[in-house]
Amino acid sequence: MAKFENIEEIEQDLDGHGLRIGIVMSRFNIDVCEGLLSGCVSSLTHHGVAPSDMILVTVPGALEIPVALGKLARSGKYDALVALGAVIRGETYHFEVVSNESARGVMEVQLDTGVPVANGILTTEDDDQALYRMNQKGGEAGLAAIEMANLLRRMP
Fold first, then answer.
1. Contacts of residue 30, Cβ cutoff 8 Å, sequence gap at least 6
2. Where would you tag: which of 13, 51, 115, 143 has the fewest CB atoms within 10 A of its CB?
3. Crossing angle of helices 30-46/127-154, nearest 10°?
4. pLDDT digits over 12-59, tens only?
């Protein structure tokens, strides 16, 4: 990022050592969700988060993710959280409801508690898209959790 004279910049910090990360994963579309989890945990451990500093909570589906995130956030035990799930379009309007409401719930948790939540809930047109994106999306969610935890620690 460009440096500007007389402007303090808080730079990206992807050092996960010492961070405590809570992960909430949906069991609906489990193959995709486990792919998301694999990418997330790989990214977290690669950047220094110890497995002993992670917790995994599973829930039935994407709509249940926010309530579990909220409980973890309010515990005060975690520096950041990750939401993992897969909402794959079907033939009904239910896809839009689940996609929109799970995203709203995830956003509300972080705004209400101040604990950053990386949204790794995939919303795709079909299974092939979900399978193609799962590892990358999971890894990106892990990185976002680390970056936001470190950013909030360093902000005045």
1. none
2. 51
3. 30
4. 999 999 999 999 999 999 999 999 999 999 999 999 999 999 999 999
User: Are the C-beta atoms of 113 and 68 separated by less than 8 Å?
Assistant: no
pLDDT of residue 130: 96
Catalytic pick among 17, 46, 47, 94:
94
Q: Closest Cα to residue 119, out of 153, 101, 148, 144?
A: 144
Which residue matches tokens 């309530």?
67
Cα angle 79-102-127, degrees, rounded to a multiple of 5 = 105
How does DSSP classify residue 90? -
Q: Are 38 and 135 in contact (CB under 8 A)?
A: yes
Look up 94 and say whether it is catalytic.
yes
Start-end of H helices in 17-84: 30-46, 65-75
How far apart (Å, rounded) are the C-alpha atoms in residues 64 and 26?
A: 8
35's tokens = 């792919």
